[in-house]
TrEMBL record:
This is YfhO family protein. Keywords: Membrane, Transmembrane, Transmembrane helix. The chain crosses the membrane at residues 12-34, 75-92, 99-122, 128-146, 158-175, 187-211, 223-243, 284-308, 320-337, 357-377, 389-410, 540-560. The keyword Transmembrane applies. Pfam families: YfhO.
Amino acid sequence: MLVTRAKPINIIAFAVIISIGLILTLPAIAYGIFGAHDILVHLNWYKYFSEQLWDGELYPRWLLGMNSGLGSPTFFYYAPIPYYFTSLFYFFKFGEVSIWSQLVFSVALALIASGFTAYLWLKDLTNHKTALISAVIYMTLPYHWAIDIYYRFAFTEYWTFVWMPLILYFSRKIIKGSRLAVPGFAVSYALLVMTHLPTTLMFSAFPIFYIAFMTSKRQRLIVFTKMIIAVLLGVGLAAIYLLPAMTMQEYASLKEIATRPFFYYENNFLLEFNRLLDRSRNFVVFRVYLSILLVLMAGVFYCAFQIARKSIKKAVRRESTYWLIVAIASSFMTIPLSTPAWKLLPLLQKVQFAWRFHVVLTVATTALIATAIYSVNQIGRRFPKKTSTMGGLLLITTLFSGFIITYINIGIPNFQVEQEFLLRVDAPEYRPAWVSKEVFEQYVISQVWKDSPKAEVTTGQGSLSIQQWLPRKILLQTNATTDVELTLKQFYYPGWTARIDGTNQLPLTPSQPEGLVRLKVPRGQHQVRVTLEAGVEERLGQVISAVCVVLVLLLISGFCQVNRSVGS
């Protein structure tokens, strides 16, 4: 009977989650490109990433078309997973700006997938019906969809809402001793790392604390050992991205972010009333709304806890206590009182925006809502009607506020989008270290590319022809009566190597102040191959990830063999 009844509930859950995901992303589908903070940057990144991926480059790190064709090391540093998923829609081309339709499909996919992973996690925590209701609430909490899609278009942060519930699901499975828990956690954690590092920094401690809080002293050592193995495996799986991103930062301008007040955590606290309405600061409406949202969320999670703590099940009460602590901690990290904690944890300052802890708050509040709903049927006469009514009204107000904030931004005219694609200038933090700030301005970059060929003879007598111009691979043919110096319209970056006639290596340097690739070629006819070769960091990351993939497959294989032997 239980199995028979469970199947239609699962089908209904899938249908509801898909429907909610499509409804919430319908404005993006119908309205077109809107004025969210980072939307044009992600359009450019996705355009060149997907083009290079479908041209056969398995991991496009160097974006050939960025910066008006001068190239950019964006994906040496930026997390690639959301762009891989988005590239699945590469051939879905609708509307005046076809790239946008592909990005919208990815947005819908991520929202629906987050509903499924939340449902999977919460079903293990409560039951089918509670999990479905709570998963829908998770999808519709304003920071998840209204802020991260329609106001900020924080594309990669938005995708982390898919992986966090999955990590928590496998955390519970580790406690229960499931054989698939360790590889499942490792893969989920690797996906989080390769999606958004700031969220990884904020969230990573909470699954570990969860295990410490929810396990008995007797089983804590074995469970912690499994968790450590799972985390290390996850980091190892992500090494293909993480190792170059962490060790090659001196080659770009990432440190300049720390010098810009906008990205400093102390300038991004909420409930800072003396500065909140300061019109000289950016995004006043945004900061005011996030402060209001913080208060609403606090009311919701407090009411949810007051209901859940009356549950007759000790495990539910303990679960709700843990998530109350997480909700309070994440709320605290968004306000000025948390300044000592930020100073004590300098690595956490790389999160940049203190209000980003709304991400963790969204997860914690969802868990508290789930435990509250699950507890309602158990409480009986002790059911707190006033608290439930207040919590329900606060939740409705919170969800409704998301719909209001969604329609604040206006659309971006198509000519502005086309101009952005024409200039294709990258974010300033990805400016190669050899390129001056003055050169990296939009106007200058567009002029450098506009009136000059991709490669030219700058000194000496001779000519050249371009035989191949691909990402990280350029093939030239030179014919010179004297030694010549060539300048390529690609920004210099460590790893660029030039070889003549397939053998001898040529000296290669950055031009000043443009930071373009420059090399000297001897007289005569020569074939010159210029490639951006993988360095030690890239290759070591690939090896570590490959080893960890094998280890994960061995763990899964061992689980399957045990299952077969038990079944026989």
